[in-house]
């Protein structure tokens, strides 16, 4: 079998495993197709997901079902105002050795898992929220000067209620930037509500079975990075990012008017990686501009900070992103 045939077979297996995992989750989760796709794309890309929505829309159930569909360790942390950093990462405890000596021993916290559900993350104080920074970026935890590596893959899926709700704290910008995507969970359709009732108020309760391993997720992640991207398409992605920077000469009019700070290089990395996986799912061996535009909203919406004028006029970051995508030309930066 030639190299091209081998790669084609690998990409076919990638799509089959992706749809197998999504289908298994869909046995429990009704609708929310875009949410599931973007969540699985983030998982494969090695990123983390922030789910935002009012209570009762199935955010926590989505994460638990994803964990059930994977052969991975799963821990859940319920974030509350009295939660402390040591409750997440662990702490040094005094232990007695076989010869009777007293020594300090590191007792791991619930952060040491493959899939971590940070439930209602914005109900904890910023001090506790910041305990996740090193883990999310470097996949390690440092306690008492000693660095402990986390198991791979390491995937944080956090849920949060809208900030207007009582008892919530805004996430620090540094932590928001560490989420691969921010997904907005909306109310289900009428037809989906009927299916939800069938699955939750009848005698039969559906359950997801484990269909993929962590090793397979890592293999799919490596394969997605092999997808080529043309120089002009990559520069179009760069143009989308710099268009969010209000002080850049190529900034869009909407960014200049409504944005205080734009997206970081980490946002560009997420945009490209997500687009590569989108290309595979669309049965292509190259990234198209449409892949970048599809990923723009979930990747960029939490990486832009609006200025006073934007907040006063009730403009959302999604509105700004749509405007800048309309402004940025497809051949942007090709001559730079």
What does the model show?
With 336 residues, the protein is an alpha/beta fold. The chain folds into 2 domains: 218 residues, P-loop containing nucleotide triphosphate hydrolases (Rossmann fold); 101 residues, Magnesium chelatase subunit I, C-Terminal domain (Helicase, Ruva Protein, domain 3, Orthogonal Bundle). It contains 15 helices and 13 strands. The strands form 5 sheets. It has a 5-stranded parallel beta sheet with strand order 3-6-9-1-10. It has a two-stranded parallel ribbon with strand order 2-11. The longest helix is centred in the first third of the chain and has 24 residues. It is globular, with a radius of gyration of 21 Å.
Structural class: alpha/beta
CATH superfamily of the largest domain: P-loop containing nucleotide triphosphate hydrolases
Number of domains: 2
Which class of the largest domain in CATH terms?
Alpha Beta
Q: Could you name the CATH topology of the largest domain?
A: Rossmann fold
Uncertain segments are: none
Topology:
Layout: H1 3-26, H2 33-45, E1 49-52, H3 59-68, E2 70-71, E3 74-78, H4 85-89, E4 90-96, E5 102-108, E6 115-119, H5 126-129, H6 133-138, E7 140-143, E8 146-149, E9 155-160, H7 173-176, E10 181-184, H8 190-200, E11 212-213, H9 214-224, H10 231-242, H11 253-258, E12 259-261, H12 265-281, H13 289-300, E13 305-306, H14 308-312, H15 317-327
Parallel strand pairs: 1-9, 1-10, 2-11, 3-6, 6-9
Antiparallel strand pairs: 4-5, 7-8, 12-13
């Amino acid at each position: 079998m030639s190299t091209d045939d081998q790669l084609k077979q690998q990409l076919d297996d990638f799509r089959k495993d992706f749809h197998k995992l999504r289908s298994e989750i869909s046995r429990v989760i009704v609708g929310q197709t875009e949410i599931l796709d973007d969540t699985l794309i983030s998982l494969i890309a090695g990123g983390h997901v922030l789910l935002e929505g009012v209570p009762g829309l199935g955010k926590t159930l989505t994460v638990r079902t994803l964990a059930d569909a994977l052969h991975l360790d799963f821990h859940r942390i319920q974030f509350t105002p009295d939660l402390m950093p040591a409750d997440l990462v662990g702490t040094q405890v005094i232990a007695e050795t076989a010869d009777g000596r007293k020594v300090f021993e590191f007792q791991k916290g619930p952060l040491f898992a493959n899939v971590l559900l940070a439930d209602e993350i914005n109900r904890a104080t910023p001090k506790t929220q910041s305990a996740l920074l090193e883990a999310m970026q470097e996949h390690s935890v440092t306690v008492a000067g000693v660095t402990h590596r986390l198991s791979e893959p390491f995937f944080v899926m956090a849920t949060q209620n809208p900030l207007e709700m009582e008892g919530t704290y805004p996430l620090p910008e540094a932590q928001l930037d560490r989420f691969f995507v921010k997904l907005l969970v909306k109310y289900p359709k009428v037809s989906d509500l009927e299916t939800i009732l069938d699955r939750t108020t009848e005698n039969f309760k559906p359950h997801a079975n484990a269909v993929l391993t962590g090793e397979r997720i890592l293999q799919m992640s490596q394969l997605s990075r092999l997808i080529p991207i043309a120089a002009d398409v990559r520069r179009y992605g760069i143009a989308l990012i710099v268009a969010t920077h209000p002080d850049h000469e190529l900034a869009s009019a909407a960014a200049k008017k409504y944005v205080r700070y734009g997206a970081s290089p980490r946002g560009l990395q997420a945009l490209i990686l997500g687009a590569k996986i989108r290309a595979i799912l669309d049965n292509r061996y190259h990234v198209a501009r449409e892949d970048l535009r599809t990923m723009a909203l979930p990747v960029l919406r939490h990486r832009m900070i609006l200025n006073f004028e934007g907040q006063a006029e009730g403009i959302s970051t999604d509105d700004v992103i749509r405007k800048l995508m309309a402004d940025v030309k497809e051949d942007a930066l090709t001559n730079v």
